[in-house]
Amino acid sequence: GDCNEAVSLEETQDDDKEAEKGPLQTMDGVGKELENEAAAGVDEKVLYDRIKAALGKPFGSLRRQKIAPEKEQVKAAEAEVLTPLDAAEARRKVLLARDGPHFRSDRLGKVEFGSTARVVATLERRPNAELITAWLADERGLAMSIWDPELTKELGSSVYRLQLMVLKFVTISLAPTVDVKMVTLSEGDGNLPVFVLQSVDFDPNIQILPGVGVSASALGIQIEVAGELRPSQDGTGVAGTISFQTAGKLPRPMRLLPEAVLKAASNRINNTIANFAIQSFERGGTANYHEFRRAKMAASDS
């Protein structure tokens, strides 16, 4: 366990008195001073080191501030029991219903961030819904084209491992892989094809900068990816949504960083992933469609 937790009442009072002597007396005082430094453009790592220096003893009274748990919003009797498949689909709907960047954190150190982007690609000058529908049904060809082929590995059973770029969140670096199931399903009475993406596993591959003092497992990183692609209404292309989210628990010093600093770090990751995903599809997906189109035309001519 954490040896800092095993302290006597007398030691706790000493820590409280020590905290009262310095300029950073309360959580609000820490936040206000760091907000000023963040606004002045101080580097994230410098802010992190400032927090460690300001805390002095292992968090003293600041660490012992108790935060009342949030009240349960839904009564147990009213809670709906979901099967794993229902729960996964409900989660997909939450992610895909978002628009743009997402960020949420609490004072207990939990943080989640991600982004949801709309994907629209024009593939034909004139409506050609029949060919586009046939292309969306070619799930393997489509799956291997929407991400950089050098960063995609086929695992079998319609699951593909996507290697993401190195992502830095303040003092934490990740080079994650995400295993994504990609299948084409039928939707509605017209049995229109919908190409669906859903993450089934991940490896965050965390690297923590020296001096942070926390294990990778303690961060509890969770990564989710969801997406869908269907024929556009005008029959000239496809339209859909791609969404991702990363969640975890911040190391204790990072919990005192101003929210503006955490948001800025998350926005850089969001923009990096979203831009790469959209550009990869526009380049790889479009090229794959035209290759599919040429193969169909050659087959009809022979």
Polypeptide structure, described:
Helices cover 37% and strands 28% of the residues. It contains 8 helices and 11 strands. The strands form 2 sheets. It has an 8-stranded antiparallel β-sheet, sandwiched between helices. It has a 3-stranded antiparallel β-sheet with strand order 5-6-9. α2 (27-39) runs antiparallel to α3 (44-55). The termini are far apart. Mean pLDDT is 77; it is low at 1-28 and 56-80.
For the structure shown, list the relevant keywords.
302 residues, alpha+beta, 8-stranded antiparallel sheet, 3-stranded antiparallel sheet, elongated, disordered N terminus
How is this structure best summarized?
The protein is of the alpha+beta class. It has helices spanning 9-21, 27-39, 44-55, 60-63, 84-97, 129-137, 139-143, 259-301, and strands at residues 100-105, 110-122, 152-156, 159-163, 167-169, 172-174, 177-187, 192-203, 206-208, 222-231, 237-249. Helix content is 37%, strand content 28%.
